[in-house]
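Students often ask why inverse folding is considered easier than folding. One informal answer: many sequences map to the same fold, so there is more than one right answer. In these notes we will look at a single instance of the problem. The structure comes first.
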């Protein structure tokens, strides 16, 4: 799976259903590229398109259970990788990581806000 595909699934998991135009902007690709990507992920059973109850002209891209499961599995694999690597650090390095956690958390929050784009 491409990084853009994985990032798009993660965005949908974090933010819920989105328009293709929103996804394209958040992921930094063109609308035609996102349309193609969504079609491929739809054929793979990872996403589905649904109508927007508030605007019948709009189609939203939504995660399927298979897509949500894929995101959870990838995140868990990342957690396990970090656990293994952190286990190889020495005491001073672990303390430095612990001290850096508030700044890292803030960076993650900023990145998340940036990826979500403007509120609708």
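Output (designed amino acids):
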């Amino acid at each position: 799976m491409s990084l853009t595909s994985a990032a798009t699934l993660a965005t949908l998991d974090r933010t819920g259903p989105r328009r293709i135009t929103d996804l394209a902007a958040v992921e930094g690709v063109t609308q035609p590229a996102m349309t193609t990507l969504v079609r491929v992920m739809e054929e793979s059973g990872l996403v589905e398109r649904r109508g927007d109850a508030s605007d019948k002209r709009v189609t939203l891209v939504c995660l399927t259970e298979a897509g949500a499961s894929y995101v959870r599995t990838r995140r868990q694999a990342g957690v396990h990788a970090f656990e293994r690597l952190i286990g190889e650090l020495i005491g001073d390095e672990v303390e430095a990581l612990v001290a850096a956690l508030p700044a890292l958390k803030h960076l993650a929050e900023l990145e998340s806000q940036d990826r979500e784009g403007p509120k609708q």
